[in-house]
Amino acid sequence: MNMIQSELLKYKGTFTRKLILLAPLLFVINALLQKLFMPVDYSRSWQLLIALVYNWWPVIFVPLGIALLAALGASQEKKAGNYRYLRAMNISPARIWSGKVIVMALHTLVAAFFLMVATVISGFISADGPVPWLKIFTGGLVIWVASLAIIPIQLWVASWKGTFYSMTAGFAGMIAGVLAAPKSCWVYVPWSWPTRLMCPIIGVHPNGILLEATDPLRDASSIPAGITLSILSGILITAITAIWFDRKEVKS
Fold first, then answer.
1. Where are the alpha helices (DSSP H) in 127-182?
2. Count H helices, E strands: the chain?
3. What is the C-alpha to C-alpha distance for residues 10 and 82, in angstroms, rounded to an integer?
């Protein structure tokens, strides 16, 4: 807990905190504008709003947003001394690394919460009918859990190679995730997991087209499988990258 509190203090007053709030608002504003400029007689349903927001969020923010968060975190550490204090204090580098992964996960959870709240607020303004509370909050939480394995990967790339490579990996992950999500190989591409799990929840194809009721992508069995895969992979990748970080700092 001390390591987590220490990591949280590092982000106080930084752009990272603003990004967590601004990213969800940008996606919802985009969806809101699309709805407001549609013809008056066009159906203004909650389904359309959720389809717009919850399809673009895992496709764009998850890969690029996490890549940017990782790059900002790694850059901040370099400016603060590039972990030199580890060699002056009896602190386990692996524990520091795990703390950074956990704090990034907490930040993405807060972003997911803001996304859910912003979606509800924009729906009150532009959508008709009862609020689909379960779909909104289930979708937001599932996206967050499904993205956990990406965090240590992006943090490792950012710490190893820097901002450019972190953003490049995020962009490549975005493309690979969209391409793999509707295919059977989605289980091998962590960036596809949030997008793939949204298919049965919001009924939208990764390309943005509404799914037919009989479409195989609506199979909800992918949800528990994807969640389990993300949690286990996240723990494993965090452990592996923590070992790398520990050895890296020892050699420094």
1. 133-146, 150-161, 163-180
2. 11, 0
3. 13
Indicate the domain borders of the chain: 3-251
H-helix or E-strand spanning residue 210: none
Residue pLDDT tens, the chain, 252 long:
666 666 666 666 666 677 777 878 876 777 677 666 766 555 567 888 888 889 889 999 899 999 998 998 888 777 666 566 655 666 777 888 888 899 899 989 999 999 999 888 888 877 778 899 999 999 999 999 999 999 999 999 999 998 899 999 999 999 999 999 999 999 999 999 999 999 999 988 888 888 888 899 999 999 999 999 999 999 999 999 999 988 875 555
Task: Name, in order, each residue with C-beta under 8 angstroms of 156's C-beta and a sequence gap of 6 or more.
Answer: 241, 244, 245
Asked whether the whole model's pTM tops 0.85, one would answer yes
Non-local (6+) Cβ contacts of 192 within 8 A are 176, 177, 178, 179, 180, 181, 186
CA gap 197, 220 in Å, rounded: 8
* Tokens found for residue 25: 């608002």
Per-position b or e across 138-176, b if 16+ CB within 10 A of its CB: ebbebbbbbbbbbbbbbbbbbbeeebeebbebbeebbeb
